[in-house]
């Protein structure tokens, strides 16, 4: 069963690295913000994998807090976004 946890952690790590590349290379601000949302979702998935691996449910409030913060941030970005080409 340890192989499953190792594979899950490796896949999350590779996805986080690729997301960081997308944040750094994003052609627009909106692309970077969407990539940041993906990175936050990957952090939540990592916490979920850790909770399942360690059989410890004390990280569930952190997952809920991250999800609420990500949702509010996404809504605020969608509401108040200004185009990059405008000055």
Description:
It is a single chain. With 87 residues, this protein is mainly α. The protein has one domain: Helix Hairpins. 82% of the residues lie in helices and 0% in strands. It is built from three helices and no strands. The longest helix has 26 residues. It is flat, with a radius of gyration of 16 Å. The mean pLDDT is 89.
What is the oligomer described by this structure?
A: single chain
Averaging pLDDT over every residue, what do you get? 89
Low-confidence stretches: none
CATH topology: Helix Hairpins
CATH class: Mainly Alpha
What order do the helices and strands follow? HHH
Q: What is the rounded Rg? A: 16 Å
- Can you tell me the CATH architecture? Orthogonal Bundle
Helix tally equals 3
Largest sheet: none
Shape: flat
Indicate the percent of residues in helices: over 70%
Q: What would you call the structural class? A: mainly alpha
The number of distinct β-strands equals 0
Transmembrane segments: 6-24, 36-53, 59-78
Family: Belongs to the CPA3 antiporters (TC 2.A.63) subunit F family.
Membrane topology: Multi-pass membrane protein
Pfam family, one: MrpF_PhaF
Produce the secondary structure layout.
Layout: H1 2-25, H2 29-54, H3 60-80
Task: Record keyword descriptors for this entry.
87 residues, mainly alpha, Helix Hairpins, transport, MrpF/PhaF-like
Describe what is shown at a glance.
The protein has about 90 residues and is mostly helical.
């Amino acid at each position: 069963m340890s192989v499953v946890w190792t594979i899950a952690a490796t896949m999350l790590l590779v996805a986080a690295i690729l997301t960081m590349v997308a944040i750094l290379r994003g052609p627009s601000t909106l692309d970077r913000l969407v990539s940041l949302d993906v990175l936050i979702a990957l952090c939540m998935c990592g916490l979920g994998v850790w909770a399942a691996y360690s059989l410890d449910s004390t990280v569930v409030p952190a997952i809920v807090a991250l999800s609420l913060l990500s949702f509010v941030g996404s809504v605020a970005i969608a509401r108040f976004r200004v185009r990059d080409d405008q000055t």
